[in-house]
Specification:
- By secondary structure, the protein is of the alpha+beta class.
- Helices cover about 30% and strands about 20% of the residues.
- The chain is built from nine helices and eleven strands.
- The strands form two sheets. Strands 1, 4, 5, 6, 7, 8 and 9 form a seven-stranded mixed β-sheet that branches. Strands 2-3-10-11 form a four-stranded antiparallel β-sheet.
- A hairpin with a 5-residue loop joins β8 (about 305) and β9 (about 310-315).
- The longest helix is centred in the N-terminal third of the chain and has 26 residues, at about 45-70.
Length: about 350
């Protein structure tokens, strides 16, 4: 009985030590984190909880990176805007999105077989990395805007293009589901079926601090892009061929693992997870063993390429890829209208 009491006491002391170690971070470190990611908490209790999870998650990041340094992991993790959040918060932020029952996609047209590898950075392209924030689950809108932006840049030869506005889709297309579980098809249908305008971000600003859509605004006289059609792809081979043809593709991934949310560099290998959720990113390139995707989590997430792109690399094989269960959601835009200043025409 005495041994049991000593054992239980030891466990209690260990738990208390662990808790104290997580909540006694240097004040300067915590203050810098809050400033860097514009963190504001509703109460002192909420901040103490956030501080606890920050300390706990920081320890997990350090443990993972130690394995990376020993060659046991293929990718690194880093502190970012998600580090002060617990798993329940993160899973609730990324619920599973349900594809639309009715598709207005146009059958995909044939393209050349893809080359062995393709990276737009090798051709001098640099696409601004957006930050959707942690208030609104709007990856569907950001990925759609970025895909159209990159396609337009390829056609126009604009290696440093203006960003297109995701906020337009959040405010005007997504309705009450904009910040919850909306899908890219909603944005593509808004543009193609209703002949709507996609403005430049400099004119229609993205707002990362809101947890709901704003009022939809029509900007008379502002430059805009119009999309004529989009298509759905059904295989990894098609995905490679279209990306090689400089047609970026929006894909769905499961973002609910700790590793995904804190990924910073290397070849990402999705861990086993019992949770499911939806997040959307834009495939912009690939190599023999991985895809290169652009995300909308800001510059503190992911790997920067030579043209300052944040890229996310995922391992693929002949049998499966981490996104194969969502292949029905691979969509790409093409044949768009655009206006810049006075010119209006069809490409």
């Amino acid at each position: 009985m005495d041994k049991l009491a000593i054992w239980l006491t030891s466990l209690l002391l260990l738990a208390v030590f662990h808790l104290v170690s997580l909540t006694t971070l240097p004040n300067e470190e915590w203050d810098e984190y809050k400033i860097l990611f514009a963190k504001v908490y509703s109460s002192s209790i909420a901040e103490r909880n956030a501080l606890y999870h920050y300390g706990h998650n920081k320890n997990l990041i350090d443990q993972h990176n130690a394995k990376y340094d020993m060659g046991q992991k293929t990718f690194k993790l880093a502190i970012n805007q998600f580090t002060d959040m617990n798993p329940t918060q993160l899973n609730e932020f990324f619920p599973v999105a349900t594809p639309l029952a009715l598709s207005h996609a146009t059958p995909a047209f044939p393209v050349m077989t893809g080359v062995s590898s393709y990276n737009p950075a090798d051709f001098g392209f640099s696409f601004l990395v957006e930050d959707q924030g942690t208030k609104c689950n709007s990856g569907w809108a950001y990925a759609t805007a970025k895909a159209i932006e990159i396609m337009k840049a390829n056609i126009m030869g604009d290696i440093v293009p203006y960003s297109l506005s995701a906020q337009v889709m959040i405010d005007c297309a997504g309705s009450s589901r904009s910040c919850i579980d909306q899908v890219p098809q909603t944005a593509f249908d808004y543009l193609t079926q209703y002949n709507q305008r996609l403005y430049n971000e400099r004119d229609y600003r993205n707002t990362m601090q809101l947890d709901r859509p704003n009022m939809c605004i029509f900007l008379a006289g502002a430059p805009f892009t119009k999309l004529a059609q989009y298509s759905v792809l059904n295989s990894d081979e098609e995905l490679k061929n279209y990306v090689s043809a400089r047609l970026p593709v929006v894909v769905e991934v499961n973002p609910t693992s700790f590793e995904f949310l804190h990924y910073s560099a290397g070849v990402f290998q999705p861990p086993s997870t019992t949770t499911n959720g939806s997040h959307f990113m834009t495939v912009i390139g690939y190599d023999a063993d991985y895809w290169i995707l652009q995300n909308s989590f800001g510059h503190m997430w992911g790997e920067r390429g030579p043209s300052y792109q944040t890229v996310f690399e995922t391992v693929t094989s002949r049998k499966c890829t981490p996104i194969q269960v969502h292949l029905k959601n691979h969509t790409f835009p093409f044949d768009y209208f655009f206006t810049e200043v006075v010119f209006i025409g069809k490409i």
